[in-house]
Amino acid sequence: MIKVTIEPDSDCENPVNDDSTWTLISFNRNHVGYESPDNYLEAKYDSSRSGTNVKERTSIEPANITIRNKMKAGTAFKLDYFEHGNSVWSLHGEGPQCQFDTSRHAGMLLWNNPVKDMGYKTYEDRQKDARNFLKYYTSWCNGETYWYKIEKMVDGEWEEIDSCGGFIGVDTIKEAITDAVRIYKNIEYNDLAQWIMKDTIV
Questions:
Q1: Average pLDDT of 7-31?
Q2: Are 103 and 149 in the same domain?
């Protein structure tokens, strides 16, 4: 018989700190990774639409040719940010759209490494990779970070046989546990592990 314990991992590192992946820039001064939006985006205004001297914002455009070219190539994306209890980072226009809880054009996602290191050639594939990263980063922001420990009953006592941490997202830890306990039949789970693994428990 084995026992699986899953607990929150408070030491899990920010995925943005991985030099081989995307960089998320937030325009919120209270967030990690804050930078001024003026470095990346520029608001365009037009007074002709309203028929008055009051200028109406018509669009948000790249602030310079570098950002414009990166956006065309799929190595930079505008982001929206939703927060109501938990948070959600998403590509602009794709996530939860709430007039009260969604900040549009709330940040930028940038690939600052050589494009050849990205692996993806098309805009669509790079966009998909950006979506996947935002889902991963959102899980980290919401504290969905885990470590596990697996113990085996030996002579009436629990003996640790495996442990690992740094898992971000429920799907990631579930996959790791599923693989680790594959050869065992009698498995005991703590409460968090039981909730995460509920779809696999027979």
A1: 90
A2: no
Q: SS3 of 126, please?
A: helix
Residue ranges in the chain assigned as alpha helix (H)? 65-73, 123-141, 170-180, 191-196
Cα–Cα distance measured from residue 42 to residue 67, given in angstroms and rounded to the nearest whole number: 11
Instruction: Tell me the sheet residues that pair with 157.
Output: 154
On the question of pLDDT at 51 being above 60, the answer is: no
Helix (H) or strand (E) holding 189: strand 187-189
Asked, for residue 132, whether it belongs to a domain, the answer is no
Does position 46 have pLDDT exceeding 90, yes or no? no
Same domain for 93 and 153, yes or no, is no
Residues 6 and 64 in one domain: no
CA nearest to 1, candidates 155, 119, 137, 121: 155
Examine residue 124 and state whether it is found in any structural domain, yes or no.
no
**In the predicted model, what is the mean pLDDT of residues 128-132?**
95
Write down the pLDDT at residue 191.
96
